[in-house]
Amino acid sequence: MALLITDECINCDVCEPECPNDAIYLGTEIYEIDPARCTECVGHHDEPQCKVVCPVECIELNPEWPEDRDQLMSKYRRLTVHPVTE
């Protein structure tokens, strides 16, 4: 599943730079996660880095984006494809 930042977010700015997929951004009130870019760090790390650094533990699974590890890995591959240049 993609991750979700809850209303408990204190806008401490530590999660955004940790995201290898650039899925985290400052929303209108709190940081948000783009579920189309979030892979829970599958393909990059053993655990979601945003959750590791979050001091208030406000990041949880997004129930609207159910994905298993294979789907997250497929998303990682799509996000990290580099076009062939000549």
UniProtKB/TrEMBL annotation:
<dbReference type="InterPro" id="IPR047927">
    <property type="entry name" value="YfhL-like"/>
</dbReference>
<dbReference type="InterPro" id="IPR017900">
    <property type="entry name" value="4Fe4S_Fe_S_CS"/>
</dbReference>
<keyword id="KW-0249">Electron transport</keyword>
<dbReference type="Pfam" id="PF00037">
    <property type="entry name" value="Fer4"/>
</dbReference>
<protein>
    <submittedName>
        <fullName>4Fe-4S binding protein</fullName>
    </submittedName>
</protein>
<keyword id="KW-0408">Iron</keyword>
<feature type="domain" description="4Fe-4S ferredoxin-type">
    <location>
        <begin position="31"/>
        <end position="64"/>
    </location>
</feature>
<keyword id="KW-0411">Iron-sulfur</keyword>
<keyword id="KW-0004">4Fe-4S</keyword>
<keyword id="KW-0479">Metal-binding</keyword>
<dbReference type="GO" id="GO:0046872">
    <property type="term" value="F:metal ion binding"/>
</dbReference>
<dbReference type="GO" id="GO:0005737">
    <property type="term" value="C:cytoplasm"/>
</dbReference>
<keyword id="KW-0813">Transport</keyword>
<feature type="domain" description="4Fe-4S ferredoxin-type">
    <location>
        <begin position="1"/>
        <end position="29"/>
    </location>
</feature>
<dbReference type="GO" id="GO:0051539">
    <property type="term" value="F:4 iron, 4 sulfur cluster binding"/>
</dbReference>
<dbReference type="InterPro" id="IPR050157">
    <property type="entry name" value="PSI_iron-sulfur_center"/>
</dbReference>
<dbReference type="InterPro" id="IPR017896">
    <property type="entry name" value="4Fe4S_Fe-S-bd"/>
</dbReference>
